Task: structure prediction
Amino acid sequence: MSQNTLAPAAQRRRERRFGLFSLLVLAVMLGVFASSTRGAQATFILNDARGQLFELPDLILPVVPTVIVLSALVAGIAARQFTRGFGSRAVVIVGVVALLFVIAFLTWAAAGGQLSVVGLLRGSLARATPIAFGAMAGVLCERAGVINIAIEGQFLAGAFTAAVVSSIAGNPWVGLFGGISAGVLVAFMLAGLSIKFQADQIVVGVVLIVFATGVTSFLNTQVLSGNPQLNSPTRFASIAVPVLSEIPLIGPVLFRQSLLVFGMIAAVIVLQYGLFQTRWGLRLRSVGEPPKAADTVGIHVLATRYKAVLLGGVLAGIGGSWWTLDAVGQFSREMTGGRGFIALAAMLVGRYSPVGAFGAALIFGFSDQLATSLQLLRVPVPSDLLLTAPYLVTIVVVAGLIGRLRVPAADGKPYVKQ
Amino acid sequence: MSDDIEPEDSAPRSGEDDAPESEQAPGDVLLEDEDLARAEIEAAAERAADAKAIGLEAGFGERFIAAITGTSVVVTLLAFLSALVIGAFIIAFSEDAVRETLSYFFAQPGDAFRAAGDAVFSAYRALLQGSVGGTTQLSETFVTATPLILTGLAVAVPLRAGLFNIGAEGQFVAGGMLAGLIGFSLTGLPMAVHLPLALAAGLVAGGLYGWIPGILKARTGAHEVISTIMLNNIALLVSGYLISTTLFRRPDRTDPISRSVEESARFPRLIPWEPGLRVNTSLLVAIALAILIFWLVERSTRGFELNAVGLNASAATAAGMNPGRSLVLAMSVGGALAGAGGAAVILGLQYRLTIGFSAGIGFSGITVALLGRGRIGGTVAAGVLIGALQVGGRNMQAQTGTSLELALVIQALIIVFIAAPGLVRAIFRIKADDLATGQVAKGWGA
Result:
């Protein structure tokens, strides 16, 4: 959409910038990956250890030829970017270049060793789950005109409460309800302070993060460390969808996951439909654009905003519960480790749409999982540097180097009825 | 409860809309230069709008500055008080002894109140004793306050230009890393050369790290909050990586810990004959920088532009100022101050880099700046106060077992109340007008 409206000169400049990016990628591929001395072959395991309908053979790739073929593809793309350009598909092509780079990287990383593709993809989807929930919470709030920086705070509050409630009740569903309540409570503070008291939404968001961090850390050392029975939540079991989970490769990745993962995918679909195809979604979005128009036709602006922020709290609370009810099974201090900020980033990279946010969350979940997988492979790439990828991508997107980000017009602006 | 504040909030708003027209109709302007005339009208509109009116309609910076600097001392004190009261409740309910009495609360409510009172009293007494109860404690308070003053100023200066610098943490890390690197990799230099060089390295590294979000904001409009959050995380990850490389790591250790800063690059202690007093000359550096920043922001031409951009960017543009330049300046200066904070900690206290050496000092700078209401003197005072709170918190944990994180909770509560003055007004049922002049003053004057 936005690329069609660019002036031809700007279009050319952008294509050239993308071309430079491709050349950079090409240089790394040829300079680092193709000159590997770590082993001649890379083995990718496509089977899940827990069995499937039939076994796939391991994918064994010769490292140097594979990287050279991939490099040739990137070189071809770069050549066209500098000459004719890709027009309206330019952004997609950048994604293709990035994908080719990732494949080359994996080939190089797995050289002389074995990499489980199923484990990598399965872990990526699992780690994308809280990020996607948080990003959807952000989408709901910001589409309705309330900036929600506090996703990290909602995660922490949700994770803590879910852990305690699930430990007491011995039931993950009750724990999930607790996590949701905590997320909604933080959302309520955000809504109250920013909608009713019209405090600055960004300041309130930062404050709520500090507050949630402080309260959960305080209660963790003060109460949980002395009462370990309060911090041993019952977790959601992994669910295998009958039949579908037996499909090789796809089955274990998509259909042998925990309940929260399925819930996340369902939420993405429902929210995408709801926001853009229903009357509810239209109204929600209308109060985030200059809301005077919505008010004029009789939509209750403040109530709509309250509902959007609280519903966002529900989603962020579920996202926070993922840590204690699914992944780790115990609360520890600041365990969300800044994923709330990554969720914020996913929302921006996904351009304020649930499906976009889901896609971005997958990419970030992948880089997260990759950092873990690579440590097992003893690849000489510091996982710390790899983990900076989501943050760098976000700065590039926010700075509009790929395309202008269209922010809801009334995002962050309190509304006073006249 | 809060209904009584709404009329006051909306009243000045309608006044603001009318004010520019009635005070200075376009026809009254007889200047020949149209741009000058427009600037004049803008300036008049700016004067006409009082702080409360700005607080409601207008851009981020305007609302923000009004919200922070427009709050009176009363609100600040009440915010601090409210935070301590809520903190008391949290202490009471988290104390095991109190929770035991709750089981028979209705039989003997007195027990519960007594236990709660004891817990709160002893916790807060330990907090106070630990921060100002003796020379060692005072020394620790100032040691902790030094980097907090600097990161607080790092948030306060951009605040004046309408920018919210969440990136002090990352800038602090950048400054500390480079200052440390200069501090231990150069040897044989006299202190008169080495220490200033290492400090300058911290200033430059922090300044450059603050320049990035500034230039991104000025050139592309990327929101500084988003870019600084991302840069914080990048700084923490990259510093973690760098400390484990041979460039930084101690040769005899495998765990990530850097080499020690040379003696010639360490801040000498202020009272060297008392070994227990860690307070050092970095405090003087912080005060000197604060005075310099006071001059820059409050007295210099650049500072005037910076304030003008923060109050109303379009008016500043119309008056011939360059908002982009002010934004970049504010962020770079802020970054340099945070970098100096990092240098102060590494060269004055820890002498070596470890993973996570920033320990949230940059984030605390946000509290300090908000508590100081964005003013330079106020920020310095707030830095000392928060420093005392943190040092006292350590003593509280040691003496009464109340966890150190309570200091963090109290800090967060303070900013909640300061960021939402309406909340304080609603709780204490203060009318908005009383707050604008300060209740006491009004009682005497009018």
